Amino acid sequence: MWLFLAFIAVPLIEITLFIQVGGAIGLGWTLAIVILTAILGTSLMRTQGAMALSQIKSSLSEVRDPTEPLVHGAMILFAGALLLTPGFFTDAVGFALLVPGVRKAAFNAIRSKINVSGTVNMSGDFGQKPNRHPHRPMQGDVIDGEYHELSEEERLAKDPSGWTKH
Prior knowledge:
The chain is 64% helix and 2% strand. By secondary structure, it is an all-alpha fold.
């Protein structure tokens, strides 16, 4: 429901701001500001995105939890999309997401709403609760199934499926 409200509210806010700003400074200056913020935002997004990518790489190479750099990278990408969208409200939100302190506060708010029970990789755990046996799945991950191995004669005797006929 909140997403539907955002799709209604954001264009209405943008239209209102375009009318107000355009009436105050004129159409030419309004368009110039929109184009300038898109160019400036793209440049800032590129530099901050490169920094976020290097932080992701370093956290993965040092076997640290990559969650925070990944979320920061996603927020930078979202900020870039907002800055490329014409409008003053989306530009304000996009520029705000390019500020590291705002991203940190948003990350902490997101992290408080999400509960990760544990993650494990072959190199070790990322500070979460590890599996007791990393090579054996936990009881909840077991899938029962049956199979029948075909002998060489049975495989050769079977007609190919309709998908492989030419």
